[in-house]
Automatic annotation (TrEMBL), chains A, B:
Xref: CDD domains: AAT_like (cd00609), WHTH_GntR (cd07377)
Domain HTH gntR-type: 1-69
InterPro entries named in the record: Aminotransferase_I/II_large, HTH_trans_reg/aminotransferase, PyrdxlP-dep_Trfase, PyrdxlP-dep_Trfase_major, PyrdxlP-dep_Trfase_small, Tscrpt_reg_HTH_GntR, WH-like_DNA-bd_sf, WH_DNA-bd_sf
Gene Ontology molecular functions: DNA binding; DNA-binding transcription factor activity; pyridoxal phosphate binding
Superkingdom of the source species: Bacteria
Claim: Metal-binding is one of the keywords in the record: no
Family note: In the C-terminal section; belongs to the class-I pyridoxal-phosphate-dependent aminotransferase family.
Protein name: GntR family transcriptional regulator
Keyword Transcription: yes
Sorted UniProt keywords: DNA-binding, Pyridoxal phosphate, Transcription, Transcription regulation
Length: 473, 473
């Protein structure tokens, strides 16, 4: 064990034991350096490690503090039921979630909507408006099938932060991440093929597997470290898996960041069994720690990783601009892109390229990361306060989603029906499983600015959960 | 035969015989009414019939005239080679056509680009700009999976003109017509299935068949009346066809309008053999005659027709807004829409709804129809003037595409290479055939405002064709 991990664990133990209480200032870097006889940078590394685990919070110029209410709720359990490839179901429940039009008065705590009210988005809107006013060929005509070269260059530059050196020629702009993921699936698999997925997993990908006739093999997934590599290896032994699809960084719905070592190990397994990896990185830039975690793609040396992402979570989903870096599958993906949508709308691409090039993207990301970090703490606190004892909860390290697990008999679809009169909607857990598991789980969105209205909504959801649990007993 | 058809044929015969020469004014409605003892409205109907056939041109307040240069070039021949289902090829040639970025200095005579410089588009740009400036949930968030209800209502209203009464609930907004067509194919067919198509046929659909693993059965298609019903019936007898895909109104690339009787007969055949019809109507509103022709969908009484269209040809392709009225396949299409792109971008949908609702769409269509009619005549004239004797040419009744057929040994891919130094690109005929037929054909776009520059380009293409033909002999 390295020095800094050792030190972090000692500090963590003291926090867990209550030697430092929520809100307390933790010892200064200098003091710990003297106390333990280690360098300043080792202490700093230890604090960053604790911060990643949500055990310490930095405050500028004041040092590190114990986050409020450190007594943790338990994590969701790992699903260990027998794995076999299944046909994907749950479409009706997904459809219910996505059929509510924008502007409806239902509070959609279930959808993957970022906060789009940030003032840091204003330059993007200005670009959209200004470019929309021009009557130039660029905005109204067919663009290049690959997408706007200027935007692709900016994406290529952004990818450097995740450890990827991908020339813009190897990037294809898509209509949101959906199109990227669907193209990735069709480029690597045939109908009837088996795709291994993390579990719980993004419903969009699983519905794509359903639509194109592939089977999903749901693998046990740790709520802190992601897909079980042991289970994956066994599955690769046992089944003719064609691709692994996962969201390793700021996972949806669990919020974990797969450790770098696991990412590398997963790639090695994929190479050994010669399967493709479809890496969804759509929340990757919303990791609460900086610099952002590396992608599996950043280790890819034989082009088997198809990296899929978009601006839907970092900026606004209504733009419908995503991208894919498809490695060796570039030609196939181009063909699928052509038949899927012909090309991606020009105007949002040009506005995005301008927004990023002018340096507006990074400040926006910083703001959202810090807002979502605070909101996670608040939302976690509200769940602790308003949900029944025994509620298990994820510990997101990025993004804006909480995953809750209730008593095994609980039914979150029933919860949604009970919430109808309150005009609140949550995402039922079952849509995150091909086979409809996780009925006792639900996903909550904490992207919106936390206010009394939101707190009241969480209180209502918690109280309704309690009522339903009571009525069962 | 009805009175007006009889009268139209008599007039037509006189024109063909040279009694009226190109540019001559034709007899007034009143004069013909007196001469033939028929009502004024019968004469008017006869003139509209002649106009539909390209034999008479109305000039406001001056009456009808013989179009310039009435001596016709021969029509393209009907392909009568043996039909069997084939895997689609030609992707490389399609990719070449669609890889040129907008703003490049290549004159793209091959692409399906409308004229986007019309001042009648200005209100749309104003809406785009104004809506883009607002920072409202409506533009930036996820919309409803079906598309914006306001736009769907406008589309429902527009569809009335084609004889369709389709409530907005049965319309799904898509990312261009590409997404509509791909969804229609996947909703009705499985990999390995056979789809009957008109021939030549839109390359986008055929590449979709390739991408999803279906086979194309190319049917003989008349350059004036469309798909051969006899050949279709034989094919339905012989092969387990799952769907018929065609562009019956203002066909791409041939420009014909399938007569209403044929449309009804085709639907009857589809019902008898229980196959779906995928009707591409993307050029339908650009028919030169008014009111616009009916769609096959307008006769559909059991929901087997999936009507696909978009604003890409009538307004601007860069918007990427299309729609599908999928009949009985609605639920399947919704699922495919979800996995394909999640939803369609909000901003262009809202701007389009505003544009149509404010009454700007009809005047724009009228302007484009009359512009494209004039351009067809001019372009036809230039081809007659600058292309080698023996060139066969289509007689488009809508849209903005000409289809040319040259000596059977001619190679239009070679032509494109020879045109490279001139920075001109045409669409090689082979991409309009699954099996790569029509190498001796090419498609020319006449959407752009005709000017000396365009005429010079057509002259260069014609001269290059002549050179290549000469070098072969």
């Amino acid at each position: 064990m390295t020095l800094y991990v050792d030190l972090a664990e000692q500090l963590g133990a003291r926090i867990e034991q209550g030697l430092y209480r929520p809100g307390d200032r933790l010892p200064s870097v200098r003091a710990l350096s003297l106390e333990h006889g280690v360098s300043l940078s080792t202490v700093q590394q230890a604090y960053r490690h604790l911060e990643d685990q949500g055990m310490a919070t930095p405050r500028p110029k004041s040092g590190y503090f114990v986050p409020p209410n450190r007594q943790k709720l338990a994590l969701p359990k790992i699903n260990r039921s027998v794995q076999r490839p299944v046909d994907v179901s749950q479409w009706d429940n997904v459809l219910e979630l996505i059929s509510i039009p924008p502007g409806s008065d239902v509070l959609q705590l279930g959808r993957g909507m970022p906060d789009i009210s940030s003032p840091t988005l204003k330059p993007l809107l200005r670009s959209l408006s200004r470019l929309g006013r021009r009557q130039s060929v660029a905005e109204l005509s067919y663009g290049c099938i690959h997408g706007d070269p200027g935007l692709r260059e900016q994406v290529s530059r952004l990818l450097l932060d995740s450890g990827c050196q991908i020339p813009y020629q190897d990037i294809v702009i898509t209509t949101g991440c959906h199109e990227a993921l669907s193209a990735a699936i069709c480029a690597t698999c045939q109908p009837g093929d088996i795709v291994a997925v993390d579990s719980p997993s993004f419903h969009g990908v699983m519905q794509a597997l359903k639509g194109f006739g592939m089977k999903a093999l749901e693998l046990p997934t740790d709520p802190l470290t992601g897909i079980s590599l042991e289970a994956l290896e066994l599955a690769l032994e046992q089944w003719p898996i064609k691709a692994i699809q996962l969201t390793p960084t700021c996972n949806n719905p669990l919020g974990y960041i797969m450790p770098e070592a696991n990412k590398r190990a997963l790639l090695t397994l994929a190479q050994r069994y010669d399967v493709a990896i479809i890496e969804d990185d759509v929340y990757g830039e919303l990791a609460y720690s900086y610099p952002r975690p590396r992608t599996i793609k950043s280790y890819d040396d034989d082009g088997r990783v198809l990296l899929c992402s978009s601006f839907s979570k970092t900026l606004a989903p209504g733009l419908r601009v995503g991208w894919i870096a498809p490695g060796r599958y570039l030609q196939k993906v181009l063909h699928l892109k052509y038949i899927g949508t012909g090309m991606t709308a020009q105007l949002p691409q040009l506005a995005l390229a301008e927004f990023i090039e002018s340096g507006h993207y990074e400040p926006h990301l910083r703001r959202m990361r810090s807002q979502y970090t605070r909101s996670r703490d608040l939302m976690t606190d509200w769940v602790r306060r308003y949900f029944p004892v025994g509620t298990r909860i994820s510990q997101p390290h990025g993004g804006f989603m909480l995953w809750l697990e209730l008593d095994s008999a609980f039914d979150s679809q029933r919860l949604n029906r009970a919430l109808l009169p309150h005009k609140i909607q949550i995402a039922p857990g079952s849509i995150f499983s091909a086979a409809g598991k996780y009925r006792n789980c639900l996903r909550l969105n904490y992207a919106a600015k936390p206010d009394a209205h939101l707190e009241e909504a969480v209180r209502i959801v918690g109280a309704t959960v309690a009522q339903l649990l009571d009525s069962d007993h």
